[in-house]
Amino acid sequence: MVYEDIAANKNNTFILLFFYGILIAGLGWIIGILYGDPYTGIVIGVTASFVMTFFSYYNSDKVAILSSGAVEADRKIYPGLYYAAEGMALAAGLPAPKVYVMPSESINAFAAGRDPKHSAIAVTTGALIKLNKTELEGVIAHEMSHVKNYDILVSTVAAVMAGAVFMISDVIKRSAFRRNSGRAGLIFAILAIAAAILAPIGAMAIKFAVSRQREYMADASAVLLTRYPQGLIGALEKIKKETYPEEEYNSGMQHMYFANPFALRADNLFSTHPPLELRIERLKGNLYKENPKI
C-alpha cells in the first residue's frame, strides 16, 4: 500500500506541474494580445519560466542554505547528526549529504540540492536537543526521502514557476492600459488585470498542493528506510507542542521545511504542509485502510 501511495503522489505532482505550464502560457498569451502578438507572448512567457527553472536547478542548495542561516555541522560537536545522516543515506542507497545546522530552538529541518549527488540536509539545534535517536533518524529519513524521490528538485521547480507567474502577472498589470482606448479596449484591460491578480493565487495553490503531496510521500518513504514509524511519529508529536518564532525562518522556504513554522496547524488550500494530526494518523496506519489517496 505504501508503494501505491508513493506512485499516486508522483502522478498527482506531475499533473499539478502541467497546470503550471498552462497557467504561464495563458498569461503569456494575454501579454501578447496587449502588445499585438499573442503567440510571441506565449513563447516569451514559457521561455522565461524555463530560464528561471534552469538557474534554480544549479543553485538551489546554495540559495537555501544561505537563506536559512545554516552553517556546516562540525562532526566533533554533532557526531549523532552525522551518524543519522550517513545511516539513512546508506539505507536509501544514496551518497551521504552535506550536513548543516540552523540556529533555532524549535524542531525543524529541510533538504536542498538538485539531485542525490548534490544534496544537503539542515537541522535545527532545537531538533538535536529535543529529539531522541530514533526521532532524529525519522526526521532525517523524511528529508533523505525528499532527496531520493527528487522532491528537492520538484519543489524548487514549483517555487520558481510560481515566481514566474508573479513576474508575468506584474507585467500584465503594468501593461494592460497600453491597449487602444475605447470600450472594448477598456473591458479587455480590466479582464487582463483581473487575470493577473487571480493567477498568482492559483499559482500559490498549485505550489502548496505539490508540497502537501510531497510531504505525504516523504513520510511514507521514511518508514521504509527506518522500518520504525514510531520514531517519526514521536518527532511529529513533539512538534505539536512546539512554538515557532517566525523571525527565525525564511518565509520563502516554508514549503521546504519539515514542519511549516508559518502555518503549523493550518488545514486549508494555501497550507504548504498537511495537518500534523493527519500525518500522524497515516503513519499509524489508520487512514491507509480508509482512503490511501488522502
Characterise this structure:
The protein has 294 residues and is an alpha+beta fold. It has one domain (2-290). The protein is built from ten helices and four strands. It has helices at residues 2-34, 38-68, 79-92, 125-130, 133-148, 151-175, 183-226, 229-239, 276-284, 286-290, and strands at residues 71-72, 98-102, 109-113, 119-124. Strands 1-2-4-3 form a four-stranded mixed sheet, with helices on both faces. A hairpin with a 5-residue loop joins strand 3 (109-113) and strand 4 (119-124). Residues 286-294 have low confidence and may be disordered.
Offer a few descriptive terms.
4-stranded mixed sheet; elongated; 294 residues; alpha+beta
Short recap of the structure:
The chain has 294 residues and is an alpha+beta fold.
Per-chain topology:
Elements: H1 2-34, H2 38-68, E1 71-72, H3 79-92, E2 98-102, E3 109-113, E4 119-124, H4 125-130, H5 133-148, H6 151-175, H7 183-226, H8 229-239, H9 276-284, H10 286-290
Parallel strand pairs: 2-4
Antiparallel strand pairs: 1-2, 3-4
Helix pairs in contact: 1-2, 1-6, 1-7, 2-6, 3-5, 5-7, 5-8, 6-7, 8-9
